[in-house]
Amino acid sequence: QVQLVESGGGLVQTGGSLKLSCALSGGAFSSYAMGWFRQAPGKERVFVAAIKRGGFAVHADSVKGRFTISRDDSKNELYLQINSLTPDDTAVYSCSAKLSAYVNGPYYRPSDYDYWGQGTQVTVSS
Fold it and tell me: Which of 10, 16, 69, 96 has the fewest CB atoms below 10 angstroms from its CB?
């Protein structure tokens, strides 16, 4: 059974940075396309970034230039470096995984993904 566990969230001031991590177990990490989504209180889950097998990555326009998704297949880990944080970035950040052929992806919709972590809270104070 594939499991995803996020870490690295916390409370940070406006303009600060965090690095989120997501560890995958129970499967071959390199076989999965991965994604990050976030959900603010009272709002829907929205796409943040995605990375396919091989490392090609895409980011939502709202975070482009501030957030960077990356993966380390040797460590079975996914990362999200988040910089220049604002209160609008406050949300629960969740990672997701989809078993994927090498040529497919990245994937933008929550319904595309097979597995989800429990999420990590990021709170940005003004």
Answer: 10
What's the first-to-final CA gap in the chain, in angstroms? 40
Q: Is the CB of residue 34 less than 8 Å from the CB of residue 95?
A: yes
CB atoms within 10 A of CB 62: 13
Three-state secondary structure string covering the chain: CCEEEEECCEEEECCCCEEEEEEEECCCHHHEEEEEEEECCCCCCEEEEEECCCCCEEECCCCECCEEEEEECCCCEEEEEECCCCHHHCEEEEEEEEECCCCCCCCCCHHHCCEECCCEEEEEEC
Q: pLDDT tens for residues 38-57?
A: 999 999 999 999 999 999 99
